[in-house]
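Support request, please re-run this one:
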Amino acid sequence: MNLSTNAILLYSIIGAVILTYFPYFFVAIARVQAGADLSAPRAIFDKLPAYAQRATWAHQNSFEALIIYTAAATMAYVTEVDSTWAMKAAIAFLLARFLFSVFYMLDIPLARSLMFGLGSAASTTLFVLSVLQLQ
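Re-run finished. Output below.
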């Protein structure tokens, strides 16, 4: 199957939304194990193991990255950017954000930071390609 750049951009937005919840899966498991109180869901945070606390932070950071990436991918879609750079940027963003969460939960700060940078570079690439498309 040979997908167009526009299809990859749209699917990547869906993938980015799904990846936002990837770390939260581990938080949910830890919350059940810690005996979550549904009447005070945030009160359990300090009782969670360290990996689940980091997973919470990865989950929160994913929303921040999602906002920027969605704008970048939508701009590339609307301006009809059609290049392998756009496709590579979309795929790189998804890979970087997945690994960002993994490295965050495993407490590997340097690798996590590199993945954050790669994801940010992917979003920036889509912004730049969109602006260049208008020239």
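The chain has four helices and no strands. The chain has one domain: 5-133.
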